[in-house]
Automatic annotation (TrEMBL):
Entry EC no(s): 4.2.99.-
Function description: Inactivates the type B streptogramin antibiotics by linearizing the lactone ring at the ester linkage, generating a free phenylglycine carboxylate and converting the threonyl moiety into 2-amino-butenoic acid.
Family statement: Belongs to the Vgb family.
InterPro entries to which the protein is assigned, alphabetical: Vgb (IPR051344), Vgb_bact (IPR011217), WD40/YVTN_repeat-like_dom_sf (IPR015943)
Pfam families: Vgb_lyase
Annotated organism of origin: Bradyrhizobium sacchari
Enzyme type, top EC level: lyase
UniProt keyword annotation of Protein transport present: no
GO terms, biological process: antibiotic catabolic process; response to antibiotic
Cofactor(s) needed by this chain: Mg(2+)
Protein name: Virginiamycin B lyase
Amino acid sequence: MNRRQFLASSVAVLAARPSLAQEAPFRTKYFPISAGIGLHDLTPAPDGTVWFTAQGKGLLGKLDPRDGSFKTVSLGQGAAPHGVTIGPDGAPWITEGGQNAIARVDPGDLKVTLFRLPEKFASANLNTGVFDKAGTYWFTGQSGYYGRLKPKSGEMDVFKAPKGVGPYGITVSPTGDVWYASLAGSYIARIDLATGSAHVVEPPTPNQGARRVWSDSKSRIWVSEWNSGHVSVHDPADGSWTTWKLPGERPRAYAVYVDDKDKVWLTDFSANAIVRFDPATEKFDVFASDKANANVRQLDGRPGELWGCESGNDRIVLIQTIASG
């Protein structure tokens, strides 16, 4: 870290305790999936459906929110899928840790195509993936790896992460940069898309446990800090950091998602809740689950909708913004 970055980090950190609020214009719905299926991550599709991974059963599923129905497809023997995202081709792409592969599922006939990692990376422990603006798929492996796949050619490169184990969440910004978070390493990193090298940027809170990341419309990187219970934001433009603690005594921030209004959504395992943070007012809204041990591990959304996976209850949760007037 150079002097400019150090100063920016030092002066911009806010050990803030924002006020707690409960806003009215929201509606919460739950969609039960099969008990024991092991929900983990999800992503909304352009057609209004929602794809989800079922790590416990090795499945990819598709929920139709109109009637709550869903269908699943097996990803193969020994499958244990983690993350899912929609590619430029409209298909769901999955980090499939059980087979140590990136999986693509055809949205029409549900055909599964696997892109396996090289044997020397057999224990990568794949976590999450994202597409950059050129259509390259970037992914993380918690055993200490990150990599890229070029879908058209099938070419794959895997890189050893700085500081070893920990790569977890990953995001792409409007400027086209790809960032990942390292849970065990307690840092975030920007990937050089040309060389594949990772530039480490450390949050101001030591050993904070940066778990997942998401970019806002200004290409600032929001971080959910599992160990510290903070949400923080890094602005690559000036090197600054700002940090807030989630409500409650011992928050545990797992997932993070930034919506189209630049409001920040997180999950707090300690509070058994989804939390919405407004950076403009520094206020939190808390949406507690109606069942214990929800353990929401992933958030994603589209305008007016926030989606999450309750892995503890094997339900998908939707928080809708209710139009006023």
